[in-house]
């Protein structure tokens, strides 16, 4: 197939396995986020794709060509490092033109390429400045411009925005996504920030303890998480342990609920997003469990109600205009709409 | 938060001891040496207070000029060769596992603890005809018969580089181990082979460290006076050898002092010049 294929990649460091059997197909032009907590193997996976770490097993293919043994400098991939790794002894322009210099391009070509890339990352006219004179956000753009200098086949970024402050990070996420759409370049970003992944990715690859748990578009990862870890890691969720109770029914929290899932394992975990949970006055609403309100938090844009259901805290979020007429301490009905209930294997 | 600068005399108390030591054991002896360099020599091995330039005039001759030039040239060559060897060595060393690094550093420190005398005699044995390395070459069939490799310029250079090498590695080590390893990785993803990345990225980004190391090794080599005597011919004797000769064997303290002062001034001047050069290049 055309695009990048990871064929059962494994990376071991002595007795420790950093990446277990990673298999993934990435078509051209996709924006992929490798997402997971720190130490989950996402950076190791990216470094293997870049050719900086050799896999202990498996293959890497691009457009059906095996590049597992190709050294990093012959892969034609652009990479942005977490530390940015800008060369301190070169100016901004020389940094960006470095890959052209390596390939023996003329001074004029290098200069023109640097100017073109600087305007691409919206930072024109700084080519002659030393790297040390730039702000964090500007260096970020320089590192991106340098990695894109040769129109690489693959654009790899390792936690590229982690050093920026929250506001600048949000802006750069949108800008990076727009840049990728403009260039149509296959992009793989490593991040531990699920919001960042949701903002940018066409394909989110959730990893934990060296394994790929789910690879799917962001909305699908959010709506149909593959397991409890993914459900919990992506956004907020309520998790309730339970058991199967016949076709389309499960037993949780001392009662039974209808669910729209056809596959119901014997031992299960119910996952439901806070915005799907509805709080009613006692006795109202369908598909419900009784509960007690423990806390109400008015956040302006939304209202968060916390209720205890059979010893477990359930969080419900609603818009202010749908605020339920309940107070802390009140006994209420907590509605779990069947179509929003996701049943996961334990 | 910056510390306030010292205002009262008592604020300087912490540096009183080191300052006193520096004064008593460096500034005062150096001052005495400068004073003696202007004294008048009395035949029979002593000198009397005077203020004359006779001692300085004496070495403004082609002979002493030649010796000074040779000394500076030899020390520069030792510094450059030592850095050329030590830089790639240290680069490989900092990428090894911790235990491997410790073993190498302990080994280098033990070489550093050897005195110049031991290094000199060890190399003179290695370079000798009877027990030297050429016997090994003969055994391997690389040479027809064993020869003596010393006294010669090459032997002096080898001995002095050997002496300076551990020192050079230890000076380069902190800078190289602090260098961000992703710089090389970045260069590689941008298309540079490991070899090119080393010369394009590692060497230039440590330009100032390299310059400073060359200067330090240069000054270190300038003081060496036993190795040129043990491993070289009289033509390869440095100014340090002549100073020792004048001071100890000829008992001509004023002339030895004058040469020592001149050597210090010239080397200070050279160090200053190269620092100035380095500054300009950086700007």
Automatic annotation (TrEMBL), chain A:
Coiled coil residues, start to end: none
InterPro entries found in the cross-reference section: AAA+_ATPase (IPR003593), ABC_SmlMolc_Importer (IPR050093), ABC_transporter-like_ATP-bd (IPR003439), ABC_transporter-like_CS (IPR017871), Mo/tungstate-bd_C_term_dom (IPR008995), NA-bd_OB-fold (IPR012340), P-loop_NTPase (IPR027417), Transp-assoc_OB_typ2 (IPR013611)
Pfam families: ABC_tran (PF00005), TOBE_2 (PF08402)
Gene Ontology cellular component terms for the protein in this record: ATP-binding cassette (ABC) transporter complex
Domain of life: Bacteria
UniProt keyword annotations, A-Z: ATP-binding, Nucleotide-binding, Transport
Domain ABC transporter, residue spans: 4-234
TM region(s), chain numbering: none
One Gene Ontology MF term: ATP hydrolysis activity
Family membership noted in the UniProt record: Belongs to the ABC transporter superfamily.
Protein name per its UniProtKB record: Polyamine ABC transporter ATP-binding protein
UniProtKB/TrEMBL annotation, chain B:
Keywords, alphabetical: Cell membrane, Membrane, Transmembrane, Transmembrane helix, Transport
Main location: membrane
Annotated GO CC locations: plasma membrane
Membrane topology of the entry: Multi-pass membrane protein
CDD domains for this protein: TM_PBP2 (cd06261)
UniProt keyword annotation of Ligase present: no
Domain ABC transmembrane type-1: 68-274
Transmembrane regions: 12-39, 59-90, 102-127, 147-173, 209-227, 255-277
Top-level taxon of the source organism: Bacteria
Any one Gene Ontology BP term: transmembrane transport
InterPro entries in the cross-refs: MetI-like (IPR000515), MetI-like_sf (IPR035906)
Localization in the cell: Cell membrane
Gene3D superfamilies per the UniProt record, alphabetical: MetI-like
Family: Belongs to the binding-protein-dependent transport system permease family. CysTW subfamily.
Protein name: ABC transporter permease
Lineage: Bacteria, Pseudomonadati, Pseudomonadota, Alphaproteobacteria, Rhodospirillales
């Amino acid at each position: 197939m055309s695009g990048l294929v990871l064929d059962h990649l494994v990376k071991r460091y002595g007795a420790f396995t950093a990446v277990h059997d990673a298999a993934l197909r990435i078509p051209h032009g996709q924006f992929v986020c490798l997402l997971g907590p720190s130490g989950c193997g996402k950076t190791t996976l990216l470094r293997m794709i870049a050719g900086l770490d050799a896999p202990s097993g498996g293959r890497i293919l691009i457009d059906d060509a095996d590049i597992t043994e190709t050294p990093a400098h012959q892969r034609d991939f652009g990479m942005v490092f977490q530390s940015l790794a800008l060369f301190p002894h070169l100016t901004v322009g020389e940094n960006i033109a470095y890959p052209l210099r390596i390939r023996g391009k003329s001074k004029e070509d290098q200069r023109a390429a640097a100017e073109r890339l600087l305007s691409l990352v919206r930072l024109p006219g700084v080519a002659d400045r030393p790297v040390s004179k730039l702000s964090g956000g500007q260096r970020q753009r320089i590192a991106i411009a340098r990695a894109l200098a040769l129109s690489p086949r693959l654009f790899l970024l390792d936690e590229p925005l982690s050093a920026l402050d929250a506001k600048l990070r949000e802006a750069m996420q949108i800008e990076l996504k727009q840049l990728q759409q403009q260039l149509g370049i296959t992009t793989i970003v490593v991040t531990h920030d699920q919001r960042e992944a949701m903002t940018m990715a066409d394909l989110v690859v959730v990893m934990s303890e060296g394994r790929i748990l789910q690879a799917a578009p962001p909305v699908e990862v959010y709506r149909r998480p593959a397991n409890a870890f993914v459900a919990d890691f992506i956004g907020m969720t309520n998790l309730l342990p339970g058991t199967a109770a016949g076709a389309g029914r499960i037993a949780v929290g001392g009662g039974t609920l209808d669910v729209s899932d056809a596959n119901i394992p014997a031992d299960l975990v119910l996952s439901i997003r806070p915005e799907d949970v509805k709080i009613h006055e006692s006795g109202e609403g369908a598909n419900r469990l009784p509960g007690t309100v423990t806390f109400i938090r008015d956040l302006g844009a939304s209202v968060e109600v916390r209720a205890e259901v059979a010893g477990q805290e359930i969080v419900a979020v609603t818009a202010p205009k749908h605020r339920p007429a309940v107070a802390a301490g009140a006994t209420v009905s907590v509605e779990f709409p069947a179509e929003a209930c996701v049943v996961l294997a334990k | 938060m910056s510390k306030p600068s010292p205002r009262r005399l008592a604020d300087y108390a912490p540096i009183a001891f080191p300052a006193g030591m520096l004064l008593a054991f460096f500034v005062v002896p150096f001052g005495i040496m400068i004073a003696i360099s202007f004294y008048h020599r009395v035949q029979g091995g002593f000198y009397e207070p005077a203020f004359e330039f006779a001692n300085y005039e004496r070495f403004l001759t082609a002979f002493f000029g030649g010796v000074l030039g040779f000394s500076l040239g030899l020390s520069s060559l030792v510094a450059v060769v030592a850095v050329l060897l030590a830089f790639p060595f240290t680069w490989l060393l900092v990428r090894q596992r911790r235990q491997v690094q410790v073993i190498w550093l302990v080994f280098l420190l033990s070489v550093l603890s050897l005195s110049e005398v031991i290094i000199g005699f060890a190399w003179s044995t290695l370079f000798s005809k009877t027990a030297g390395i050429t016997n090994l070459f003969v055994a391997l069939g690389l040479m027809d018969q064993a020869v003596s490799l010393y006294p010669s310029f090459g032997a002096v250079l080898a001995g002095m580089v050997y002496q300076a090498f551990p020192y050079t590695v230890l000076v380069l080590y902190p800078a190289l181990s602090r260098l961000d390893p992703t710089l090389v990785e970045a260069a590689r993803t941008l298309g540079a082979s490991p070899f090119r990345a080393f010369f394009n990225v590692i060497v230039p980004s440590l330009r100032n460290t390299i310059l400073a190391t060359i200067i330090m090794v240069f000054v270190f080599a300038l003081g060496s006076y036993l190795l040129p005597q043990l491993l070289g011919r009289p033509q390869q004797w440095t100014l340090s050898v002549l100073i020792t000769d004048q001071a100890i064997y000829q008992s001509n303290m004023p002339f030895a002092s004058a040469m020592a002062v001149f050597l210090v001034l010239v080397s200070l001047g050279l160090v200053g010049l190269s620092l100035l050069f380095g500054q300009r290049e950086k700007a």
